[in-house]
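Continuing the batch. This is chain 6 of the set; chains 1 through 5 are on the previous pages. Same settings as before, nothing changed between runs. Recording input and output for traceability.
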Amino acid sequence: MTSIEISEYDPSWADHFRALHDKLWPSISDIALAIEHVGSTSVVGLAAKPVLDITIVVSSRSNMKLLTQKLEALGLEHRGDLGIPGREAFTRFPGFFPHNLYASIEGGQGLRNHIAVRDYLRSNPASILEYSRLKKSLASKFPNDIDAYVEGKSLFLLDILKKSGFTDSELSEIEQSNKKA
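Output for chain 6:
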């Protein structure tokens, strides 16, 4: 089992995202609305696992099917939703910085979660420091247990979502889907 590694923020993460964006965009720009850099590597100053999270945004389920076909034509394998409804996962592009590649329909809960957390952290420097400390502590406490690491972050992230306007019903739904994943 691989140990959980948390690195200090690296400005090159933004460059790696741009390289992946530039690789993808010409092939999908006719159906994709955007390619979003989400997750901890997208927040300047935030410690993170050195793996980019990238989400391609499409407008509809039919465009998701077209996107899947286009990504498969580029040599990527569709991995399904991995337990998170409304988000499809794909294998990594070989030769690029480590990354998780997802696709979501615009307005979907998974995408809204990622954008809300990213944008909240980007505008709250004290939360960046607090979240960095939490992640380092959890990685130290659970170096080989990704489930415990993720669970340890849940309350912090749910609090951000609540501050970002998510309803109690939405938060409950998120908690339930996290327990299934």
